[in-house]
Amino acid sequence: IYPSQLDEDTAYKIGRAFVQFLKVDEVLVGRDGRLSSPKLFEALTEGIMDQGANIIDIGLASTPMFYFGAAKAPAAIMVTASHNPKEYNGFKFCRENAVPISYDTGIDRIETFVQGNKFDEPDQKGELETKNILDDFIKHNLNFVDTEKKFKIIIDAGNGMGAYTFPKIMEKLPFEFVPLYCEMDFNFPNHEPNPLKYETLKDLQKKVFEEKADLGLALDGDGDRCNLIDEKGNIIPNDFTTALIGKALLKEKPGAKILYDLRSSRIVPELIEKNKGHAIISRVGHSYIKAQMRKEDALFAGELSGHFYYKDSFFTESSFITLALTLNLLSEECTSLSKLVSPLKKYYQSGEINSEVKDKKEKLKEMEKKYSDAEKILHIDGISIYYKDWWFNVRPSNTESLLRLNLEADTKELMEEKTKEVLDVIRK
Hints:
This protein has helices spanning about 10-20, 35-50, 65-70, 105-115, 135-140, 160-170, 200-210, 240-250, 265-275, 285-295, 320-335, 335-340, 360-370, 410-425, and strands spanning about 25-30, 55-60, 75-80, 90-95, 130, 150-155, 175-180, 215-220, 225-230, 255-260, 280, 300, 310, 315, 350, 355, 375-380, 385, 390-395, 400-410. By secondary structure, it is of the alpha/beta class. The two termini are about 35 Å apart. The chain has four domains: about 10-130, 3-Layer(aba) Sandwich (Alpha-D-Glucose-1,6-Bisphosphate, Chain A, domain 3), CATH 3.40.120.10; about 135-230, Alpha-D-Glucose-1,6-Bisphosphate, Chain A, domain 3, CATH 3.40.120.10; about 240-345, Alpha-D-Glucose-1,6-Bisphosphate, subunit A, domain 3 (Alpha-D-Glucose-1,6-Bisphosphate, Chain A, domain 3, 3-Layer(aba) Sandwich), CATH 3.40.120; about 350-425, Alpha-D-phosphohexomutase, C-terminal domain (TATA-Binding Protein).
């Protein structure tokens, strides 16, 4: 929260610590439209320059636009708090090639430097250069559109950073674009820009239906997560979107590797394999997924949170490419989004259910023992247990004393019975 937990003084030290840790001579910096972002940007860049590195200032940017710039820079920082309420702010860090820095790959070290407040004195102070990357970013996105069909599309940017980039991309395309909350306003006057909370999608669902649009797309505050709405106003679960994008990409590149979030429906790997792809399960979290994508040289990865990652976009997430590939698929198959999704509704899911647990490790051990007769047990993130006609994953929260359950079964009755059974084990 700014300024009680994060202020200019801390931002300045973070700038110095970042350069000292990475030993780079240039840092690309972007920022979202929050009221505190210009002040934090100023303090941060002062710290970076005082530590001897030059700044490439790209100004206002959505997170996908920032990654586009970061992919060509030795290091990069984005001032943003994603979908969090207006009083929040923070930083996203990348090393070269837009590789994210997570707590265990560097944030812990940066934190130590900030707390120690001892920095090497550089030979000279860095300088700041402003650079406009918006036009190149728009061109990069347009490369993914492969249809001339006059789709009608409604974009709900939630007054976040997607309101800055999406209209500028859409005006270059043959589609009928209807903007919803596409004015940047980080007071978020209409709804919290977080498509994971389905109640924030109500206005978009209504608008798609009223306008007889082909589909709707909701974006989060920094524009890197999204959720699709079909022409009837129904919300498309993000694992289904993973399956559809996988299908679209495999038409061009059969045999490619595709990563899917371990909470996804079984239909996802089934559809990927059916379309001659190689489905690989992944743990939850963007820095893990990006690292695994690079290691496997995967073409695409989809996460239930609405992050969709593309090898052809520097292994980073892109809401626009997700929209473009969906439209390409609709155009090619001459169908509607609801018809594309309909055959995927094969299994029954519990949704994510949280339970407070005192000892998370102990509880996971107990569960593994209880379900030791399973066909398959995985330990990618928490524990995943697979039987012939049902499966579940239980994973610990990183920040709270919670265990999160996701369960799926072949029938509704079995799903309800097993959800109750597993929750009894977790909560007893």
